[in-house]
């Protein structure tokens, strides 16, 4: 089968068809979404035949042998830490969700890593009704989901972006305020959903309320974070930073997000979409911050 693989660049290769384990379904992939992390932080030492990719949506062509999961012909969205960028994907049935006919598979394919990360991080902040929550990197894939989900949870959402052009559509998604970087934030916030890292994470930490919390989700800045915990007058008395990582399996959270998408309560925020033979164009656009939200490739 054909697959996207990393050599010096993102190119096509021919790899063996996956052989599903008993608890895995075989899915014919219709669309995949790209994530900043899987491109920017890809391994330099990739074994032959390795297929990267986290997010894919398609149709089940072989049901799991152990009887778990959906039947042949079911439309699904899937997650895994590899194997998405190919014509066929073997996926654990606990890592997929059924997609109704009313939902475009490309939009569903934009959900797994970015959507589930945002959902789980919002939950980790606890009750948010009436609380100020800052989302850094709000124009990116995780950020645009985080703005929507935090607003749905009752938060007063402050969206931090790198420039005014990156703020497009964020108020419609639920942002009550927009700032150009957390250093320009006025007042304090209870929670931070940080997708950038580096200096922005430090600036966000200095603006926490007492007992506030930063969820350190991503490292889009690709730089170290240096925090002066003794910086007088600009720090929370008891603020903390949590190194956030998603929890698996994704199945239940994916089903929840697909339900919101089907009901029109969530926007997939696909800012770039095209055929998968333009994968390098999409990857370059993501790395250069030219995509507002998610990039989706159709097979």
From TrEMBL:
One family name in Pfam for this protein: ADH_zinc_N_2
Domain Enoyl reductase (ER): start-end pairs: 7-297
Keywords recorded for this protein, A-Z: NADP, Oxidoreductase
Record bears the keyword Kinase: no
Keyword Oxidoreductase assigned: yes
CDD domains (alphabetical): MDR4
UniProt-recorded name of the protein: Zinc-binding dehydrogenase
